[in-house]
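Q: I'm writing a short explainer about Alpha/beta hydrolase for a general audience and would like to include a description of its predicted shape. Could you first generate the structure from this sequence?
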Amino acid sequence: MSSSPMRLILVPGLHGSEPQHWQSWLEQRHPEARRLSVPDWDTPALDDWAERLDQAIQQAPGSDWILVAHSFGCLTTARWASRHATARVRAALLVAPANPARFQIDPEWLNSPLPFPATVVTSRNDPWFDGAEATQLARRWGASTWDAGHVGHVNVASGHGPWPLAEALLEALAHGPGTARHRDFLPDQHELVASSP
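A: Of course. Here's the predicted structure. Afterward I'll give you a sentence or two in plain language.
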């Protein structure tokens, strides 16, 4: 169990996050964690998913929630944030964002700076979105970036079940960047890089 109590709302991507996925691993480690629910994980619907995320956030008790999104879930989070303002969300960890162009999404829908601190994790060999382009998207969101190296799409297929880096980056969001920088298990000790629009 994590020593740092964090209130997480998990926002999976296309097809959801299977039991072996790192998001499911985090959910097991954080008993208060909640997970977005949509009618069909195989049919991405940005506005519908964003509205369902808003419902999930409004139904979550209290505040200080951290959104933990993967792939299309990152786009869902950005779309939600562009339409809703709430003090319930403290920060967001956005891992391996999906390429909006692959879903025919108008870039203007996703260009608003996020209204809370966020870290975008990028991969140098993500088959679904070039890492440099993902970094540009993070800049438009006003998010910090973490170059995780050659880690594929950061999913089960790329070997990301239990994923301690996610815990470290969440601690950085919750308690300050120094908490992630000095964890022994971080592979290359990359530092968080602040972005600006």
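A: For your explainer, you could say: The chain has six helices and six strands.
Q: Perfect, that's easy to follow.
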